[in-house]
Specification:
Order of helices and strands: HEEEEEHEEHEE
Strand order of the largest sheet: 2-3-4-1-8
Largest sheet: 5 strands, antiparallel
Radius of gyration: 18 Å
Distance between the termini: 27 Å
Strand content: 25-35%
Length: 196
């Protein structure tokens, strides 16, 4: 959700590329929260510093820093995702997702139905390809990328690591680099994950 907000703020300023975004403190939603996104002037390299702050509704002081990073102008390049135009990707082998979300729950990270969007997974060497779909009933047009869809895209990494390495750790993203949004409001994503 924070990544989507930062992308939207950047697009408003003509700096729609999230060059870097580091999550500092979790944003816990136990009621209404006020958010504040600050974006600085561009530096000599064209990058703009940004910060995301929040505080609970009704609290009058003490903003918490939730994320910081930099915005830049969009490059407009998809950087080698041409293989995803044909599905499944030629040469990639299917990976079974039987019991996938049950294994997540056994590690202490139970996902509700809205966040169980990884529907297909393939692997070709150290590259994995996933297909994620937004569950019915969720509206994609209110977001650049719906947070449930983006979260499910990251599950391809976990599924591929499990299959390749038998790695049973839970990986949670805390830093994003080089993020650009090429289309908004989608209900399905094709994902490429490099395991190296």
């Amino acid at each position: 959700g924070i990544l989507d907000l930062v992308l939207a703020a950047g697009r408003e300023l003509g700096a729609g590329r999230v060059e870097e975004l580091a999550l500092v403190e979790p944003l816990v939603l136990e009621g209404p929260v006020r958010l504040q996104i600050t974006v600085g002037a561009p530096g000599a390299d064209g990058r703009r510093p940004l910060a995301v702050y929040g505080r609970s509704e009704g609290v009058e002081e003490g903003w918490t820093l939730h994320a910081s990073g930099e915005l830049a102008e969009e490059k407009g390049e998809s950087d080698g995702f041409d293989a995803l135009r044909r599905w499944p990707v030629v040469g990639a082998q299917p990976v079974s997702l039987d019991g996938f979300y049950e294994r997540f729950a056994a590690r202490g990270l139970a996902y509700g139905p809205a966040f169980q969007g990884l529907t297909e997974l393939f692997r070709d060497g150290s590259t994995a390809y996933g297909l994620v779909r937004l569950p019915e009933g969720l509206k994609a047009d209110e977001f650049g990328v719906h947070p449930a869809l983006l979260d499910a895209a990251l599950h391809a990494l976990v599924g591929a690591r499990d299959e390749v390495e038998g790695d049973q750790r839970v990986f949670l993203p805390f830093e994003w680099t080089g993020v650009e949004l090429f289309a908004a409001g989608g209900t399905e994503l094709r994902v490429r994950v490099d395991l190296d």
